[in-house]
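Board notes, transcribed. Complex of a protein with fructose -6-phosphate.
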Amino acid sequence: MCGIFGYIGQSDASSIIHKGLKRLEYRGYDSWGISIIKDGEIKTIKDIGHLPEKIKKKELFSNIGIGHTRWATHGGITVTNAHPHFSKDKSFVIAQNGIVENYLLLKGRLESKGYTFETEVDTEVIVKLAEDGIKKGQGVKEALINAFKKLDGRNTIVLLDLKNQKIYSIRNGSPLILGVKDDEIFLASDPLAFNQFTKDIVEINNGELVEIEKGNFKIYDIERCKYIDRKKRREKLLNIDVDKGKYDHFMIKEIVQQQHTILRATEYTEKELAPLIERLEKARTVYTIGAGTSGFAADQIAYYLRKISLKNTFSIKSYETESYLDIMKKGDVVIALSQSGETADTIEAVEMFKEKEVYIATVINMPGSTLSRISDIFFMSKAGSEICVASTKVFTSQISFGYLVAKSIIGEFNTAKKELSILSSNLENFFTERNLKDIKSIAKLLIKKEHFFILGKGQNFHIAQEGALKIKEISYKHFEGFAAGELKHGVIALIEKGTPVVSIISKDSNSKDLISSTFEVKARGALTIGIGDKIFEDEKCFDHFITVADSNELKAISNVIPFQLISYYLAKELGNNIDKPRNLAKSVTVK
Ligand code: F6R
């Protein structure tokens, strides 16, 4: 999604902004722009597509500027629509993250006042509203605040002011954070963007404006028109690893890291978990929530809470909360999962739940993110930076954490730790040349096919859904994950000669059903692939079989790894952009 970066200091702003925007690339974008102040004017460069490796420095040398990566929502992917956007008199530029939900209404009003629009983007109404305020005699800051107050939706905006040589930014929804290093000030949507320069951060909350000038920043509450004295703090967890190392892509690096990340995600002590466990023990109902891959993690954790801890648990998709709100009661517990901690759907749901006085626990991977700040308690997934847009290691970190929590409720914290360490060493042994070669050859078999089905049941139902999502995202092939039980009720109509069907099979009470479902599709000509425990590798129903590490109660985690690898190898064969798949954003900060 869109990214904002700003800089005021001693160094070359354009090259610092370029570096910052490069760090924001992983969020997903389709065009970019940089504006700096030089020789008494604002100079802007913009383009569609990806940022070049270098930008022409000389022309753009300056100590103050802003940058933006755009993920198109309103208006096509064009240079004109790319941010920042100039005011008519060129005295300021504005870039925005978010969506102005009432922009048509505002645009109509401005047009009736004689304003004309050159772009298709909603941002332009913010520019014109600010111009209108300035025309009426307001200062830039006041005009920006007044413009901002007219906007509906979650928006974060940044303005570069030529006359006062300042940057102003207002946050509502989309994330915003300051980095401070002596008299240099950085502003970004995500602390990863300036982590290479400083780890001293200042959080900006919703409804706050930050005014930045050389060596100084001031924060104001825009509703109460009050100055806020907020000190910087050192964010230790900002140690991020943004190198591919020996790997061709971040995705494969992150897949292989899982043997370690599942342990880091669960290195909490019983004492650290205690406040959450006590709430869960007392709760009448527990809700887990997330979107996309984090939504499937929420489903899997709900499964563990029901099956292991016997808790009455519902899993809710962040964007489908409506029917649950009225049944939530004080004392219920919500566990919200999110890699970024900035997903608009999840934040909005949590904000609504808070009004119900339920206890909110979040599990996030990005330090300092919004969800961690609005929850009663938060836990870090500690997976390290996940750069590939498709989530892999954070998913397994989230569900490993959920498993530890579920076991702790029944007093089996130590057993859970033991199981997790067995899983970790099993995974270490899984990433062998031989296994990777076998999975690569299965991926090759799938290259010419278009539609695929994945069957799972019980502990593997949500793994089937997550496996399908992973493959869709990177290979752009149509994979669907189903409950094996659903097959006879409709899905089987889609099976024809050669249709690939992947069955996830574990040594549990569902294995017989999986075998008979696989026979049924095989009888109709499907190409059958099994993923699961070794004891099933010779079952006649499977044309191919991928044996996973047998991990007792944690089989579901072992079973998702082959899907991540199939996704990777399939996309590689197809020549797709693996780490930045089309149309997808890493941090989905708009609804
Ligand atoms: C899929 C993926 C997305 C995210 C979803 C929620 O690989 O990454 O489906 O899981 O957009 O994002 P977070 O976890 O940041 O809330």
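The chain has a mean pLDDT of 93. The pocket of fructose -6-phosphate is lined by residues 291-294, 338-340, 343, 346, 390-391, 473, 588 (CB under 6 Å).
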